[in-house]
Amino acid sequence: MADTVPWRPKAGEIPTDPGVYRWRDENGRVLYVGKAKNLRARLSNYFAPLPTLHERTRRMVLTARSVEWTTVGSEIEALQLEYTWIKEFDPPFNVKFRDDKSYPYMAITLGDEAPRVMVTRNRRIKGAKYFGPYPKIWVVHDTIDLMIKVFPIRTCSDSSYKRAMQTGKPCFPGQIGKCGGPCSQKVTIEEHRALVEEFVRFMSSYDRRVITHLRQRMGASADAMQYEQAAKYRDQVEALEAVLEKSAVVLRDSVDLDLFGIAEDELAAAVQLFSVRGGRIRGVRGWVVDKELDIATGDLVEQIVQGNYAAGDEPPREVVVPELPEDAEALQEWLSQRRGGRGTKLSTAQRGDRAGLARTAKQNAAQALMLYKTKRSADYTTRSAALADIQEALGMTEAPLRMECYDISHLQGTNVVASMVVFEDGLPRKDQYRRYTIAETTDDTDSMYQVLSRRLARLDEDAAVPDVPDVTTDDVVEGSKPTKRFAYRPQLLIVDGGQPQVQAAKRAMDEAGVHDIALVGIAKRLEELWLPDDDFPVILPRNSEALFLVQRIRDEAHRFAITHQRTRRKRDVRSQLSEIPGLGPSRVAALLKHFGSVARLRAATAEEIGVVPGIGPATAAAVVAKLAQAPTSASAPASASAPGSASAPGSASAPGSASAPGSASAPGSASAPGSASAPDGAAPVRDERSVVVVPDVTDDGPELPA
C-alpha cells in the first residue's frame, strides 16, 4: 500500500486561508464536504500515510480522485458555505440526519383578521406565532383546551369563520363553547385581538401574575356574593395552574435556552433537544443521525446545531451543548446572526441545574439510541437482509441463522469470566446464553482459547428431541423432557476482538477438528470484521443493517460478561467479609457503600475503615488482615455438574455455586486489545455504549457447564 494517493496536490498549492473543501470520485460525485480555518493544515491530515488513517477515512480517500477547495473571508462564511453544499450535494460520507418526521406546534395566526389557535406541523404560516415543539400532539390539544377556558379565542377553521361571519350564525365550535372568536357573536374583533395578545403573553412568559389577578377577582366576586362569576374565575385559575404543571420548572424564570443531549456510538448518534423558555421545558424533540466517518464529538455537535437552526428555527439567548466544537466562536457568531444580531451564547453545562438537565437529556438520548438500534434489528425483512449481507461479506455458503458471540471480561487481570450469547434468526435466544469462569489464564487470547475449546468439546451434544405420541394408534408413548443443552450447531462464531482473539479461536477450532463453522472477530474501535489468516479486515457499509446486527450481538455479549463479572466480585468480597466475627450483612453493605469499590476497600488502612459507622478499631484491623490474606483474583467456584457429566476444573459455573476460598487465582496479565480492564475497581466497561444502550438483565440464561 502506498504512503498516500498519487494525485495528492502539492502542499504549496493549498492555501492557508479559511475555506470549504470537496472530495470527488472519478465520476465527479461529491463524496465529502468539510470546512477548515486553515485549508492546508486540514487537508494535510487526509494525505497522511494511509495506514495511519482511520479505516473509513482511508476508504473515502482511496475512493476519491480529486479534492477542490474554495477560500472564504471568515470562519462564519465557511460555516455557511459548508452547510449549503451539504444540502446541495448530499455527500455520502457526511453525517446523515434520519429525522424524517415533523413535530407538532401550537400556532397563533396573528396575521389573520381574527387570529386563531391551532395545532400544526407547518412552520411556514405567514405571520404566525409558534410555541413548541411538543413531543406528542395530544399534549398540544390538552394545553389549548385549558388555555381557551381562560382566554376564549378563536379555534374554528377559516372556512367556518367566513361562513359564520356571512350568515351571522356562530360556527359549530362556538355553539358548543369551544370557540370564542367574533363569529360567536360574543366579542368584537378588537376585543378578540386583546384576548389573543393576553394568550400569547402568558404562553411566552408563563407570568403567574395572571393567576394572581384571577384569584383577586374570584375573591372580590365571592365577597359580592356573585358566586357564579367566582366559580368561573376559579375554573380559570385551575386551568392555568394545570398548564403550568404540564411545563416543569427546571431553571430560573428568566432563563431561555436550548439544551442538546447526545448519545453516540461508532455508527449513529441520538439527539435530544430540550427547549426551555421562562425556566420551563416547553418542548422536547429527538432525532437520530448516521455517522459515516469517525468524527469527534465537537464536530458532530457543530453539524447538529447548525442543521437544527439553519432550517428556520430562531436560536434562543443560550444554546447548551455536551462539548464545544473547535471553532465554537464562529458557531456562536453564526447563531447570533440567525437571531437577528441579538447575541446567542454557546456553552456547556458544568454544574448545578443545567448539569442535571444535561444528564437527563443525555439519558433520554441513550434510550432513543437503544430504541433505534432495536427497531432496526426487530423487523423480519430487515433481519433477513442483514443475515444475507453477512453471508455475502464473509463468503459463507448459507446465511448464519444461528450465531454465537464470545466476550472476555476481567478487572485488571482478576475475576476473569467469559460470556456466550446466541442469536437465532437475528434475535437473541437468552435461554441459550452461557457464562464461563476461567480459573487460570495468561491473557485475553488464552482466555478466548479456553472458552472456545470448552464450547467446541460439546458441539455435537444437541438437545434431545422429546418423544411425541403417535396419534394414529391407541398406544401411549411416554414423552421425555430434553435436557438444557445447546440447540444445534451454529453457522457463525463471533469473538470480540481483532486478529489476536480470532487466531486464538481458530486454534481451538483446529484442535477440535471443526472446519464447517465460520469464524469472525469484531474490533470495536473501527467496527471492522477480521477473518482468520486475512491481513485486511472486512469493512461493512457504515449504515448497513448487517453491521448493526453484528454490533448488537457484540454489545449483548459484552453486557452479559460484565454482569457476570460484577456479580462474582460482589459475591467474593461479601463471602470473605462475612467470615469476620461481628461483621454482619448490614456492616458489610456499609463498608462497600462507603468505599464504592472492592479495590478501594482492599487498599484502605485500618484507620480509614474505622471511620465507617459501626466499625470499631478491632473489626477494622480484622478486615485489613482478612483482605490481605485473600487472593486478589477471582476464586474459582466449584461448578455443579450437569446430569451424567463430570465437572472439569474451570468449567462454566452453575447457578448458586459457592466460591471455594483459596482457589487458584488468575495472574494479572496485560490486557490484549479489546480487554475489559478498568482501574481502581471500576466496572470493567470497554464500550460504555453497550452498558447505556442495553438494559441490565440479571437472569438472562442458565449458568451451566459448557
Automatic annotation (TrEMBL):
<dbReference type="GO" id="GO:0009381">
    <property type="term" value="F:excinuclease ABC activity"/>
</dbReference>
<dbReference type="InterPro" id="IPR050066">
    <property type="entry name" value="UvrABC_protein_C"/>
</dbReference>
<dbReference type="InterPro" id="IPR000305">
    <property type="entry name" value="GIY-YIG_endonuc"/>
</dbReference>
<comment type="function">
    <text>The UvrABC repair system catalyzes the recognition and processing of DNA lesions. UvrC both incises the 5' and 3' sides of the lesion. The N-terminal half is responsible for the 3' incision and the C-terminal half is responsible for the 5' incision.</text>
</comment>
<feature type="compositionally biased region" description="Low complexity">
    <location>
        <begin position="635"/>
        <end position="684"/>
    </location>
</feature>
<dbReference type="GO" id="GO:0003677">
    <property type="term" value="F:DNA binding"/>
</dbReference>
<dbReference type="InterPro" id="IPR047296">
    <property type="entry name" value="GIY-YIG_UvrC_Cho"/>
</dbReference>
<keyword id="KW-0742">SOS response</keyword>
<dbReference type="InterPro" id="IPR001162">
    <property type="entry name" value="UvrC_RNase_H_dom"/>
</dbReference>
<dbReference type="InterPro" id="IPR001943">
    <property type="entry name" value="UVR_dom"/>
</dbReference>
<feature type="domain" description="UvrC family homology region profile">
    <location>
        <begin position="259"/>
        <end position="509"/>
    </location>
</feature>
<keyword id="KW-0267">Excision nuclease</keyword>
<dbReference type="InterPro" id="IPR004791">
    <property type="entry name" value="UvrC"/>
</dbReference>
<dbReference type="InterPro" id="IPR036876">
    <property type="entry name" value="UVR_dom_sf"/>
</dbReference>
<keyword id="KW-0963">Cytoplasm</keyword>
<keyword id="KW-0234">DNA repair</keyword>
<feature type="region of interest" description="Disordered">
    <location>
        <begin position="635"/>
        <end position="706"/>
    </location>
</feature>
<feature type="compositionally biased region" description="Acidic residues">
    <location>
        <begin position="697"/>
        <end position="706"/>
    </location>
</feature>
<dbReference type="InterPro" id="IPR035901">
    <property type="entry name" value="GIY-YIG_endonuc_sf"/>
</dbReference>
<dbReference type="GO" id="GO:0009380">
    <property type="term" value="C:excinuclease repair complex"/>
</dbReference>
<dbReference type="InterPro" id="IPR010994">
    <property type="entry name" value="RuvA_2-like"/>
</dbReference>
<dbReference type="GO" id="GO:0005737">
    <property type="term" value="C:cytoplasm"/>
</dbReference>
<keyword id="KW-0228">DNA excision</keyword>
<comment type="subunit">
    <text>Interacts with UvrB in an incision complex.</text>
</comment>
<dbReference type="Pfam" id="PF02151">
    <property type="entry name" value="UVR"/>
</dbReference>
<dbReference type="Pfam" id="PF22920">
    <property type="entry name" value="UvrC_RNaseH"/>
</dbReference>
<comment type="similarity">
    <text>Belongs to the UvrC family.</text>
</comment>
<dbReference type="InterPro" id="IPR003583">
    <property type="entry name" value="Hlx-hairpin-Hlx_DNA-bd_motif"/>
</dbReference>
<dbReference type="Pfam" id="PF14520">
    <property type="entry name" value="HHH_5"/>
</dbReference>
<dbReference type="InterPro" id="IPR038476">
    <property type="entry name" value="UvrC_RNase_H_dom_sf"/>
</dbReference>
<dbReference type="Pfam" id="PF08459">
    <property type="entry name" value="UvrC_RNaseH_dom"/>
</dbReference>
<dbReference type="GO" id="GO:0009432">
    <property type="term" value="P:SOS response"/>
</dbReference>
<feature type="domain" description="GIY-YIG">
    <location>
        <begin position="16"/>
        <end position="95"/>
    </location>
</feature>
<dbReference type="Pfam" id="PF01541">
    <property type="entry name" value="GIY-YIG"/>
</dbReference>
<protein>
    <recommendedName>
        <fullName>UvrABC system protein C</fullName>
    </recommendedName>
</protein>
<feature type="domain" description="UVR">
    <location>
        <begin position="208"/>
        <end position="243"/>
    </location>
</feature>
<keyword id="KW-0227">DNA damage</keyword>
<dbReference type="GO" id="GO:0006289">
    <property type="term" value="P:nucleotide-excision repair"/>
</dbReference>
